[in-house]
Amino acid sequence: MMLVSVVAEILEEYTMVLTQVLEHVFNEAPLPRRIRFLILRNLPFASNIALNPSLLPPPPPVRSTHY
Hints:
Elements: H1 2-28, H2 33-41, H3 48-51
């Protein structure tokens, strides 16, 4: 029984670290803002910054090729 609780704690810590890494990766990824928001919103243990779309960095500017 004690082993189960130890494994559960380790998995919880692992999940939190993995979530932080994924938040960082997806915040830096060149994805549309809505897609990044949907991905980050569905992560367990996501921070408040990741859940607030107004705090996400804006998408890169789109350059027009029309003259």
